[in-house]
């Protein structure tokens, strides 16, 4: 209990050390404490937020005047709490409504920071990621909170008490374990761990402000705002659908809607204003919370494949089969994703990225010209009529709210089963292009495919938005982000995009016969053989 009551002051600044407010490390020699923020080194090794799980030899006590840190042995519970606490404070943009994916965010982060968290003496056990899923479920509803019970998100987790630091949670847990043992020794009835833990929190933590339970209200309202948007009425309907209740119905081109399949699709996606929140489920993954562990293997496979599955510039036609495959999503989720104005913290480089890469007000793509003509024709009797101003084309980094739309485009234009959620791990190497909230293009690099090389995995521009420099700028941007590294790409041998790559200096290294065998649909004319091209740096 003493960690909660004992009054200690920082050896360096002489101010109070307080749990959850201003935590510190204790020197193993002089037994005095030092604030994390007062460490001469600037931060603990690894820089994890709230990480006090080191034993310290302070500057004065150390023989060479250098602070010395030794990692304590951490339990999986401590590690997961630490990682969620760090992500929640340092990479909030990665979360989906405040929740993090146990594999794509938590396990990935641990894997990347393994030496810091466990030291290099500890080796990964075969099923270590399964342990993460198991630990999350075991402590669910009092230390961790599953996304399912709150916002219908499976495999997503957060901390029940977001303001309690990893040190506080870990101390409360050990107090609880001791009390539980004492009760057992006295042969008294022991209540559930969850009840014991909650009671212990209230006896230990005197400051009730810190005991706020996670609430997703704030974050959910952000998403709701997205759903009241206005682009649906014209830009998105390229040639497939006629929206209901459109105010601009008079300027709509008259699309054919006679096909049965189309009619069915219209009715199933009629609710344009549906809350997006209910439609964020990944396409081909009807997961249930209980089987997160068994799903691990399945997900493993998708992630590995994604790194291999590559296809640049597929300019394929949309087929109805592909559209109907997506009918489970609202049209809205399929097409849109806005830009949040705040900076995005990259989990890869740990630097803040600007919300916009570029804002282009000049370019006038074919689709917008077409729409302008339709509007003018529709209003030709109105002498006062002026075209409404057109919006800019915005280039931005990938953000969580883009993922459903991008996955859906990939499933439609490339092949089924693509999930680009992983790109949120390295947003530095992405470029997403929006007109208002319509996604019109995107491009992704996979960083570090080997020491000197980044790989261009997907690049796409919507039909009718092509040939006006969008892909060119995306490639240019990605080249800028991988200074000092080669960029490689596979491109189908009869794909005209090769010329664009060559303009940037890419050189054909070899030909890979049958590269697209598994992926291209038989109705696509592109060659299944690919050039492997490299831009040398
Ligand atoms: Zn201090
Ligand atoms: Zn000391």
From TrEMBL:
Superkingdom, natural source: Eukaryota
Molecular-function annotations in GO: histone acetyltransferase activity
N-acetyltransferase domain segment(s): 393-525
Pfam families linked to this entry: Acetyltransf_1
Phorbol-ester/DAG-type domain ranges (all copies): 1-46
Spans traversing the lipid bilayer: none
Protein name as catalogued: Cysteine-rich protein 2-binding protein
Species: Phaedon cochleariae (Mustard beetle)
């Amino acid at each position: 209990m003493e960690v909660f009551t004992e009054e200690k002051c920082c050896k360096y600044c002489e101010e109070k050390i307080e749990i959850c407010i201003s935590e510190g490390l204790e020197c193993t020699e002089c037994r005095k404490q030092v604030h994390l923020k007062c460490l001469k080194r600037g931060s603990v090794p690894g820089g994890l937020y709230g990480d006090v799980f080191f034993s310290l030899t302070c500057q004065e006590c150390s023989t060479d005047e250098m602070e010395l840190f030794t990692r304590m042995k951490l339990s999986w519970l401590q590690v997961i709490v630490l990682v969620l606490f760090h992500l929640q404070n340092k990479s909030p943009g990665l979360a989906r409504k405040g929740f993090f994916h146990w594999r794509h965010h938590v396990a990935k982060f641990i894997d990347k920071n393994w030496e810091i968290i466990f030291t290099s003496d500890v080796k990964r056990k075969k099923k270590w990621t399964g342990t993460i899923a198991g630990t999350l479920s075991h402590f669910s509803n009092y230390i961790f909170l599953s996304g399912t019970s709150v916002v219908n998100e499976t495999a997503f987790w957060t901390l029940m008490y977001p303001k309690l630091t990893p040190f506080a949670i870990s101390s409360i847990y050990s107090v609880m374990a001791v009390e539980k043992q004492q009760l057992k020794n006295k042969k008294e009835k022991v209540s559930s761990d969850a009840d014991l833990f909650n009671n212990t929190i209230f006896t230990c933590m005197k400051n009730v402000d810190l005991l706020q339970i996670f609430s997703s209200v704030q974050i959910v309202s952000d998403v709701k705002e997205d759903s009241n948007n206005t682009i649906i009425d014209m830009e998105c309907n390229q040639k497939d659908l006629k929206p209901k209740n459109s105010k601009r119905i008079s300027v709509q081109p008259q699309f054919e809607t006679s096909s049965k399949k189309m009619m069915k699709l219209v009715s199933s996606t009629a609710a344009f204003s549906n809350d997006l929140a209910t439609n964020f489920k990944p396409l081909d993954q009807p997961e249930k919370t209980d089987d997160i562990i068994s799903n691990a293997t399945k997900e493993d496979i998708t992630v590995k494949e994604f790194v291999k599955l590559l296809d640049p510039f597929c300019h394929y036609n949309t087929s109805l089969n592909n559209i109907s495959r997506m009918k489970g999503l609202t049209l809205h989720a399929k097409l849109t994703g806005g830009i949040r104005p705040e900076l995005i913290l990259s989990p890869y480089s740990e630097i803040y990225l600007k919300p916009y890469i570029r804002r282009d007000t000049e370019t006038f793509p074919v689709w917008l010209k077409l729409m302008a003509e339709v509007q003018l024709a529709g209003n030709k009797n109105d002498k006062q009529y002026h075209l409404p101003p057109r919006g800019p084309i915005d280039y931005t980094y990938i953000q969580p709210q883009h993922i459903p739309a991008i996955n859906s485009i990939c499933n439609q234009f490339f092949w089924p089963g693509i999930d680009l959620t992983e790109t949120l791990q390295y947003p530095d190497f992405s470029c997403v292009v929006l007109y208002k909230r319509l996604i019109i293009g995107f491009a992704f690099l996979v960083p570090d495919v080997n020491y000197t090389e980044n790989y261009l995995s997907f690049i796409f521009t919507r039909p009718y938005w092509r040939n006006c420099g969008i892909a060119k700028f995306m490639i240019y941007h990605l080249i800028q982000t991988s200074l000092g590294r080669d960029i490689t790409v596979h491109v189908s041998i009869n794909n005209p995009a090769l010329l664009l790559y060559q303009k940037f200096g890419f050189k054909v290294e070899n030909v890979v016969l049958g590269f697209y065998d598994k992926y291209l649909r038989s109705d696509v004319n592109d060659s299944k053989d690919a050039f492997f091209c490299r831009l040398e740096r």
